[in-house]
Amino acid sequence: MIDNMNIAFNSANKLARTYTMQMEALNRYRGKGQQKITVEHVSINSGGQAIIGNVTKKEA
To answer: Which residues neighbour 44 within 8 Å (Cβ) at sequence distance 6 or greater?
Structure first.
């Protein structure tokens, strides 16, 4: 009985680790990493305002 429980536990553990590794690989393949946007050209009309410098997203 204990042997069967150990075998089932080990199998479930391997399955969970395999699932985690596969999801990490899929996310890397899909490009879920950090993205960077660079703005190269900006035009400001008269009376307009602009932010000069780094802009970061404020966490809510």
So the answer is: 50
